[in-house]
Specification:
about 70 residues; alpha+beta; Ubiquitin-like (UB roll); elongated
């Protein structure tokens, strides 16, 4: 598998993931991903994308519930 950015070789590994939302910040230290050995670009498989999206949605819902209670 080749990197879309630089055409380097992609290898299975782990990478951090960080997202900023209006009401929260989410940081995951080690997410399974394909990581380019040349430029470090990372790509997630569908299972990891789905899990990250579920986690973000859950955090946003719970954060919204907290702000409503305040």
């Amino acid at each position: 598998m080749k990197c879309l950015h630089c055409q380097g070789e992609m290898k299975k590994g782990e990478t951090p993931f960080h997202i900023d939302r209006k009401v929260c910040y989410l940081t995951l230290d080690k997410v399974p991903a394909w990581v380019c050995s040349q430029c470090g670009e990372s790509y997630f498989e569908a299972a990891e994308v789905d899990a990250i999206q579920d986690l973000i949605q859950s955090v946003e819902q719970k954060t919204h519930a907290i702000t409503l209670a305040a």
